[in-house]
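Reader question, answered in our methods column.
A reader sent in the components of a multi-part assembly and asked whether the whole thing could be modeled at once rather than chain by chain. We filled in our standard form and ran it. Here is what they sent:
COMPLEX SIZE: four components
ENTRIES:
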Amino acid sequence: MGKFFGVILVLITLVSAYPIVTHKFVQPVDISTHGHAIDEQLADTMAEAGLAFVGAQLLLAFFVWKFSNRKDGSKVVHLPGGAKLMVATAFIFIGTEVLALGVLGQKAWADVYFTAPKPDAMQIQAQAGQFAFYFRYPGADGRFGPLHPDKIDEGNQNYFGLDPANDVEARDDIVTAELTIPINREIHLLLHAKDVGHSFYVRELRLQQDFVPGLDLSLHFTATKTGKYEIVCTQLCGLGHYNMKAYLNVLAQDEFDKWLKDRAAEQ
Amino acid sequence: MASTVVQHAAPPPLAERHGRERATRSGIWVAIFAITMSFAAFTSALMVRQGSGDWKHIVPPPVIYLNTVALLISSITLERARNRATSGSRPQLRNGLPWIVVTFVLGLFFVLGQYLVWRQLAAQGLYLATTSNSSFFYVFTVMHALHLLGGIVALTYLIAQITSRQGQPRWSLFDGAATYWHFMGVLWLYLLFVISTRL
Amino acid sequence: MRATAGYVVGIAALAACAVIVHAGPSGGTVSGKVTYEGTPAKQKPIDMSKEPSCAKQHPTPITSETVVTGPSNALDNVVVYVSAGAPDESAPGQAAKFEQKGCQYIPHVLAFQVNQTLEISNADQTSHNIHPLPKVNREWNKSQPPGSAPIDEKYDKPEFIPVKCNIHPWMHGNFAVLKNSHYAVTEGEGGFSLADLPPGKYTITAWHESYGDQSQDVTISGNETKTVNFVFKAKPY
Amino acid sequence: MEDAAVQPVQVHAPPEGFIRKFVFSLDHKMIGKQYYGLALMAVFMGMVLSWFMRFHLVWPDAKIPGLGAIAPTGAPGGVITPEYYLSLLTMHGTLMVFFVLTNAPFAGFGNYFLPIQIGAEDMAFPRFNMMSFWTTLVAFIVLVSAFFIPDGPPISGWTAYAPLSAVGKDAGPGLGWGQNLWAMSIALFCVGQLLGSLNFIATTLDLRAKGMTLMRMPICTWAWFITSCIGLLAFAVLLPACLLLLLDRMAGTSFFIPSGLVVSDRLQNHAGGSPLLWQHLFWFFGHPEVYIAILPAVGIVSHVLITSMRKPLLSAKVMIYSMMSIGFLSWMVWGHHMFVSGMNPFSSLLFSFPTLTITIPATIITLIWLGSLFGANIQINSASLFALGFVSMFVSGGVSGFFLAQPSIDIYLHATYFVVGHFHMVMGVAAIFGILSGTYFWFPKMSGRMMNETLGQIHFWITFVGTYCIFMPFHYLGLVGNVRRYSSFVDDFMAPLMPVHKFISIAAFITGAAQLIFLYNLIHSRFRGKIAPENPWNATSLEWSIPSPPPWNNFGDKHPVVFHDPYQYGVKGSKGDFVMQDSPEQVVGGWDK
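And here is the structure of the entire assembly that came back:
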């Protein structure tokens, strides 16, 4: 039985490692300026964790194979080096690994969170509500109209609670259901939650950030490839959570300008 | 590991019956630790809450200080009970009975006083959900009162044991109750400080 | 044998009803037109990209329906009903049907009677959620997966109830739960007609989801047709 | 002092009558069994719920026979609605984390064996012990009753993030009374666990038998002791959090709800609360909870492994210190659940480092196991197989922690199936392997009968391979970015992953069904199994020095006296290759010196 255990465990280990080694399941193409750091970090961690995984499992398999139900009875021996060796190994290997990952991790993390958006970054407001994202562009005057929660009227598509009757800034605000942005231009996304917690997740941008009600956070990023990508909600927000999504549409500058003009006409 | 037989040196004895006495005491301390922990949680909530703009400060009714005094005195009376009980050659809880009763009464007084405080706040139109501060005020005072009631129950049990015919209550019972009672006093002082000053 | 008897009785009863209904003009009629003045708010096109199965049902995107207008300032989706003067009536047998199609409520405003069966069906390939927001009636909130059986509900108090879909924020409709059968919902030309009103004094009320309501009194004496028109003030925002 | 050894002080009279024996029992052994039974009920409920979820994920429109009758609004005609999926998810998580992973390995086995292993006659406070169980049972009933109220169980997940969990029914079905019941249930559960932990700590500190120094306690006793210390803090924080949540929901306060929220077109009448506060309080409990679930399993598995290896660990001391440091570190890492919750990015780094550091003691534990296996003489049986399976799972689930501990990678992997795979393996499956190992190991002692070995091994092989088939693919899905807690995958990029989900579901059905073998084995052996001897595994710790099942006062009239550390294997003893803890013959060496 011990031998059988060894064999099965080796099989499990190899089968588990196969899709990773052959890159069957990988993150999609990275379209952000900061994403590569995250990808490298992920790759390094995968290598180290992968080795640890395979090593430990194979060792376990081998020991169980070799030392179970031995014929030579109860003559047990002890591993030379004993516990000290184990502790030393743990500290040296894992310790260095921890340090390495910790330090490298900081850099990748810093790229996203420790840099302030450039002053000329394009400001767009994203509002998450049950169960859709809506985006607001400041319009010609470059200023966002103030929000009045009591004015929210979804039936009339006033998702943000604007009050154009009284707020002049609000009149030219452009509200859309898809996030359309120009390529190679830094976007400063202001996150606002209408009701409960939500999250903004774009795999290709290597970005994920919660919308926290009452706490207006922001993100900044630059998209480097045109195309249509999915924005999904990753924070459980109620019955329509699975269906809460929008599209990120990265366009060339001129196309973007045209798109923005058309939207402005619709308002 | 070859086995060689020598006569063994017996390790320090730990007989059950002494264990039980000690267990009561450690039990009390563990409980105190847990209660401290949960009030720490409440306090952290308070700090976060004070951070968010709309904090309106309220003044607790003066009765509260009278209650405080009563509670502090009750701790002293309980210690009197201890002295009286341990005055003899071997502890006689019966001797401490009067002071235990006094403590018990003061405890009740405190709880009633707190009730008065809540009534007065309600009269000012300050209910649980009125302002963030009133919320915390009620939460803190009510939670403390509930815990103190636990102490009062313990005292009741103790008094019943002492006064009953064959009742020979374990000393650890009194000791534990006393420790808990003093802790309630300390906890109250802390809460009073937290309530009345902005952290 | 007994069964046949049953049929006979049933048919007799039906016949009787028929006779009563068609017993000539049994009363007066109130008819008229609902219009608006001023400029109504612009209805924006709805972006359904989040729900492709619905988006592809609308080659040209539909607009929101809070203010729907017809030719010559006609105002649609206005519920015109007898708010006073007419006796309460028991609910009719047939159900009022409310359909979800192309991520849109059809009709946008559904008027029906107290205790009348309300049958809600989902014709889309996606789950919908029906969340009416009543103030006096009992509130409920149900989801309806594609292809599942219709939901039957009733309301036992008269009320105007906004309806929303929690899954698709743009989907909004209205229930008008009324006390009697004398009601109409304007469409197209904005005209309406309330028939079979026995002689008496009535209050006719017109209700619009964003412009509120207006009432006019009218007295019906015998078999006549009175004209009542409503004009709503349109708001640009 | 010798008299103490001959005439025991009676904790409570021998139980008489059915009620005292089986229902309101003060006997820690009965209470332990009651906890175990409760956990058993909960785990099968939770498993069926997960079946429904897996079924719905891969066959969204298929009707589940019978479900329509149980949940007419939640699953009309047996088709699961999005909100009912979330109800299932919430209840699955809550049942498993609280009523299985906390109850079985800690409260269940702990109650039964901790007093025996330290040579005590019962817990320090038998009445508290009884109250602790009955509070937990009420909590369980309150939670499950949510299935039978009109708008069904809550849909806010086992983490019940505010404000979704706090604003009430406007936010969706199940968030009315369903959520109230949830919060009440958890509050009650906390009370029960606090009473339990208090008992464990006092008992361990003060009721140890003569000669049972701390360093002579078996590793699982240590694990239970450390766990109870963690539990005391964790539940003491979750309780206030639940109370505040209840106040927000029922008394209109605003601890967790900020101003200006518009839910279902209704402007909420709250102001100034902080949703992050709930997350902090919850995870301050929530992360230690992971170790509350896993440490007892670590202890049990070590105990079983040592016995079946017929040799002591390389160093039990190191093992214990590692468990302590894990317990200690578990207090500084709660923030790693909130990397993308809008905390100050610097604090993310502060939380990330101790999280990575925890892998060091965890690795030491694993290496100690591996190193001890070297040169051992492993007796393969159901118990040891599950113990070895646990080691494997512990590694598999542990390495994925590397990824999630790093904020930068968490940006991508947070809230994907990678996380689900990670905690199911290390917290769920591993802990359950620990429970099963303990069951096969201790069943003879608890029931006086042996379990069926063949069935046990069949159970192991299906479960072992099955769980890998279920939870390994979760990680792959996560790497592609498959989001968790979705009732169906409508997004373009998730659709292609359906085959993987189908595979997982089928594996889940088979593995789940295999648990019925275990259930049958458990019940059948209880009545038909062959009679168990006093010490079937030739083990050394005190529980094996008394009859199976033990008498009501464990050691009868005699008071045990302990002379050795609990793991004297591989020595020429009177009974073979081992020396019982209470046998007076002296042995040179041992880690208690």
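What stands out: The first helix of chain B runs from residue 16 to 51. Residues 1-16 of chain B have pLDDT under 50 and may be disordered.
Send us your own complexes using the same form.
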